[in-house]
Design brief:
There is one protein chain. This protein has 385 residues and is of the alpha+beta class. It contains 11 helices and 13 strands. The protein has 2 domains: 198 residues, Ribosomal Protein S5, domain 2 (2-Layer Sandwich), CATH 3.30.230; 170 residues, GHMP kinase, C-terminal domain (Alpha-Beta Plaits), CATH 3.30.70.890. The strands form 3 sheets. Strands 5-4-6-3-1-13 form a 6-stranded mixed sheet, sandwiched between helices. Helix 10 packs antiparallel against helix 11. It is globular and about 60 Å long. The mean pLDDT is 94.
Length: 385
């Protein structure tokens, strides 16, 4: 919990709205340990919430307006509940997220109302650790709390916020990010089956090891990236195979149909099919404490993302290579959608200091700027404070 940021948020709210907040909400970002680009293919993912989060302070309004001030951007904006149409040229993206969330919640029959909101986040923006899902989850919980509306089941709320993000950004995102932000438990990762939203909380017992995040600080915009293109390629592969999604395909089936699909479509499907299997295996070895095996699966995941899914980039590959050169590192991979963003590395605690120094120096020499190193544990999911 970032108490300093909360104090700053409260002060900004009082200054902006001349009142104390009635509601405060915290919604975390997440790091996906393994299982990338599998969620929208009905596969498995294995994320955990991190101790970086989006915080909101709010009070109800008597009219149908949502006024919001963001400390990160030092901007104020306003949304009317009577006009929730999202247009690419209309306003900033951060306001379109609110319009989209209000639209989805209203469509679900939730009696949302007007509000004054101040927001601040310490989740790296565009870093592949779900700053947008943290923001969207915080919006959903804040609007419910301000209106005094009983929360729907968290899985349903995650679905609403997933649809809201797609509406706001045009990116056909999967369910993992919102689910992890809303349903994570302290000191646990989640093995989530994205086909039916069944899940298992997996205790994070690292026995002298840690997960460390490294942010490339590389510019990244999912809507302008290859994300939607990759999703279309996966759907094309599923159509050739005659299955609803790649979750239902085996590697043998895929290999038998290789000649029936373009090479790039086959490669995308091969990543997804093998990544789903890797994620299931990773959850098993993680539960039994075989961290060396888990690290090897992380490495294999990155190579598949790099070569088959082509979701990596030079910055990510430099970070991964620098990490793997350090004694005590068990595995390293890109996390999140890729094309920039972050890596996650599993390593011994006694290697963390060398990781911070060597990876930073290598990245600065190769790329010309410093990465941001984030030490984190498995945090609690979103809640009203």
């Amino acid at each position: 919990m970032n108490t300093g940021l909360l104090q700053k948020l409260d002060a900004a709210f009082e200054q902006r709205f001349n009142a104390k907040p009635a509601v405060r909400v915290r919604a975390p970002g997440r790091v996906n340990l393994i299982g990338e680009h599998t969620d929208y293919n009905d596969g498995f993912v294995f994320p955990m919430a991190i101790d970086r989060a989006c915080y909101m302070a709010a009070r109800p309004r008597n009219d149908r307006k949502v006024r919001i001030y963001t400390l990160n951007l030092d901007k104020a904006g306003e949304v009317s509940l009577d006009d929730l149409t999202v247009h690419p040229s209309r306003g900033a993206l951060w306001l379109n997220f609110i319009r989209a969330a209000l639209h989805e919640m209203s469509a679900a029959g939730l009696a949302v109302t007007g509000a004054d909101i101040a927001v601040c986040s310490d989740v790296p923006l565009g870093g592949g650790v779900s700053s947008s899902a943290a923001y969207e989850s915080a919006i959903g919980l804040t609007l419910l709390a301000v209106a005094g509306v009983k929360e729907p089941p968290r899985a349903e709320l995650a679905r609403m916020m997933q649809r809201a993000e797609t509406r706001a950004t045009g990116v056909r995102c999967g369910i993992m990010d919102q689910f992890a932000s809303l349903l994570s438990q302290q000191d646990h990762a989640i093995l989530l089956d994205c086909r039916d939203l069944s899940y298992k909380q997996a205790p994070v017992k690292l026995n002298g090891h840690s997960f460390v995040i490294a942010d490339t600080c590389a510019p990244r915009a999912l809507a302008g990236s290859k994300y939607n293109e990759r999703r279309g390629e996966c759907e094309a592969a599923a159509k050739v195979l005659g299955v609803k999604s790649l979750r239902s395909a085996s590697l043998a089936q895929l290999q038998a149909a290789e000649s029936k699909m373009p090479a790039n479509v086959f490669k995308r499907a091969r990543h997804v099919v093998t990544e789903i299997a890797r994620t299931q295996e990773a959850a098993v070895v993680f539960e039994r404490g075989d961290l060396a095996a888990f690290g090897r699966l992380m490495d294999a995941s990155h190579e598949s993302l790099k070569n088959d899914y082509e979701a990596s980039c030079r910055e990510l590959d430099v970070l991964v290579a620098a990490a793997r050169a350090i004694p005590g590192v068990l595995g390293s991979r890109l996390t999140g959608a890729g094309w920039g963003g972050c890596t996650v590395t599993l390593l011994r605690n006694d290697a963390v200091e060398k990781f911070q120094g060597d990876v930073t120096a290598c990245y600065e020499q190769e790329i010309g700027r410093k990465p941001v190193i984030i030490l984190t544990g498995a945090a609690q999911g979103a809640l009203a404070l």
